[in-house]
Write a structure and sequence with these properties.
Blueprint lengths: L6 E2 L3 H7 L30 E7 L17 H8 L2 E7 L4 H10 L24 H7 L3 E7 L17 E5 L19 E3 L2 E2 L8 H15 L7 E6 L25 H15 L23 H34 L6 E7 L37 H9 L11 H4 E7 L8 E3 L3 E2 L3 H8 L8 E2 L2 E2 L9 H4 L13 E4 L5 E5 L2 E5 L13 E4 L15 H16 L2
Parallel strand pairs: 2-8, 2-9, 3-11, 3-12, 4-5, 4-8
Antiparallel strand pairs: 1-11, 3-10, 5-6, 6-7, 9-10, 13-14, 15-16, 16-17, 17-18
Helix pairs in contact: 5-7, 6-8
């Protein structure tokens, strides 16, 4: 296998998918103007609009263009007529990913160690919407913020001209909020608001962003829109007319789904043909070991999860329809990714961030307002396979996310890019698209961290040069001191929080090109490489 990341064309199954979606007939003829962020920006519509869509706790293969059986025609149309990133990485959980997105640095450097009390540090430039504001963009946001509950930490205070945000980690998707009245859950333009009477999270956030964009249609400046869905994050809930769309689809269980997903993902060219089901390392009990009642409960949970993904796709389609009818689609760059792998929590899980306890998880009530259901480990492993582990883990199943970028300037639709990318790369990419530059180590008169991310805008449009070269060091670290570090093809992982980090036996080493499923630990075979990467990680840790 070649060591350098490559772009590949889609094979037979991908060709079948692309035949069902639209094809762009235009190519950009004018380059995006360049200017410094400290100068006077060009506010004309020569620069594209930017739409960033983020799914919440979605598995790697949960959309059709990445191997799913779930109908996702709107997302697939964008993906198959853009470039799919097969090697894109988020953080292993929600708030850390959002901190990296907004800052271009690691979550630890941005001051966010976990998903409970997450607040962005002041040692970063921006964050992202503030930098885009400086570049002359109108900035709007709807959906999950998860980077501070207070007014001064709200999206509006951090660079969005207008916003409607769930400021916390998660909530009901319909009905009443899980939070009592004395706990702030939602803010509109920084101010506390109550939920409308009739709502579903995915529809609400889409409606709000469309409203904001519609209000600004006559403006001369381009816009940045951040649509941060909470689907398909627990609790699994869906509107009445969506709950039963997948009934019976998952009765054969998660072992069968995992095999089917791997097969389709191979056929699409997302993962190499050499991958087999036996390469996958999972911990969930075999489906056949479950009793009949457990099987039915579990199958129902996955039906609801699929309904949430399908519903999300429907509302992405509404967003695309709005852009087309308002003649903005051709001038809009659309970037999509998930914030981490699928959650392995089951229906016994009760997050400490949500005080409510009066749930009715009976089979007949699953998916309704008063239920609190999650998909569990088996289904989560099926949606992240063949990669190892799920949300919360620093193995690839926790951090590798489905991602794609769509724009008419992409020369060859249907491409799959295998180059290593991270969510830290999004900020410099969007700045380049906006014709702006990062301010470096000083912002608004204060010292700030230089960014670690690198733009993949040229890469997406056909440049074969890798975004991250052999010298780039990409560290990861959780709140409980589990850690990972990537340099070139090598990945160092310490998944145990209790082991001595100075001991080489605490670490595992994997070759991400030959073994992206992380099945063979190479620390013994490559002790020098292991020692070098461990030292690099300690250097990073010492600098925090």
């Amino acid at each position: 296998m070649p060591r350098n990341p490559t772009l590949i064309r889609y094979p037979s199954l991908a060709a079948a998918l692309v035949s069902m979606v639209f094809l762009s007939s235009c190519q950009i003829t004018n380059s995006i103007p360049e200017y410094g962020s400290k100068g006077i920006p060009d506010t004309s519509k020569t620069r594209p609009n930017i739409l960033l869509i983020v799914a919440d706790d979605m598995g790697y293969t949960d959309i059709g263009s990445f191997g799913s059986e779930i109908p996702t025609p709107s997302l697939d149309a964008l993906a198959m007529n853009g470039v799919r990133f097969a090697n894109f990485h988020a953080a292993p959980s929600c708030a850390p990913t959002r901190a990296m997105l907004m800052s271009g640095v690691t979550n630890r450097e941005a001051g966010v160690t976990d998903s409970v009390e997450a607040v962005l540090s002041n040692n970063i430039a921006g964050p992202l919407p503030a930098l885009l504001q400086d570049a002359g963009y109108r900035t709007y946001m709807a959906g999950k913020w998860h980077l501070g509950h207070e007014h001064e930490q709200s999206p509006t205070a951090r660079g969005f001209h207008a916003s409607y945000a769930l400021v916390r980690a998660g909530d009901n998707h319909l009905g009443t909020s899980n939070f009592p009245s004395d706990i702030v859950a939602y803010r509109e333009n920084g101010q506390v608001v109550e939920l409308p009477d009739d709502w579903f999270s995915t529809a609400l956030y889409t409606n709000k962003l469309i409203e904001l964009l519609r209000d600004g249609e006559d403006a001369e400046q381009p816009w940045f829109g951040y649509l941060a869905f909470t689907a398909p994050h627990w609790p699994l809930q869906a509107p009445t007319d969506w709950r039963d769309r997948a009934v019976g689809r998952y009765d054969e269980g998660y072992d069968v789904l995992r095999a089917d997903r791997i097969k389709r993902t191979r056929e699409l060219g997302i993962i190499p043909e050499t991958t087999s089901v036996n390469d996958y390392i999972g911990v969930a009990p075999a489906w056949e070991s479950l009793d009949s009642e457990s099987k039915r409960q579990q199958a129902r949970a996955m039906e609801l999860y699929a309904a949430m993904v399908e519903n999300m796709d429907f509302h992405v389609g509404r967003m695309v329809d709005y852009l087309k009818t308002s003649n903005q689609f051709e001038d809009t760059v659309i970037l999509f990714f998930s914030d981490n792998g699928a959650s392995g929590s089951d229906s016994s899980f009760r997050p400490r961030t949500i005080p409510r306890t009066d749930w009715d998880n009976s089979l007949s009530n699953m998916g309704h307002e008063g239920s609190f259901v999650a998909i569990g480990r088996g289904w989560a492993e099926a949606t992240t396979a063949p990669f190892r582990n799920v949300k919360g883990s620093l193995y690839e199943g926790g951090t590798r996310a489905a991602a794609f970028l769509h724009h008419r300037s992409i020369p060859q639709s249907g491409n799959i890019d295998r180059g290593y990318l991270t969510v830290m790369d999004v900020l410099p990419t969007l700045l380049e698209i906006a014709g702006a530059v990062h301010p470096g180590i000083e912002f608004q008169g204060k010292p700030v961290l230089p960014i670690r991310g690198r733009s993949f805008w040229d890469r997406a449009r056909g440049n074969t040069a890798p975004v991250h070269d052999e010298s780039d060091v990409i560290p990861w670290m959780t709140s409980d001191e589990r850690a990972a570090l990537v340099r070139g093809d090598w990945k160092l992982v310490r998944e145990s929080a209790n082991e001595n980090p100075d001991s080489q036996s605490a670490w595992q080493l994997y070759d991400l090109v030959e073994d992206p499923w992380e099945s063979t630990d190479l620390t013994g075979a490559h002790p020098q490489e292991s020692a070098e990467l461990i030292e690099l990680w300690h250097n990073y840790r010492a600098g925090l």
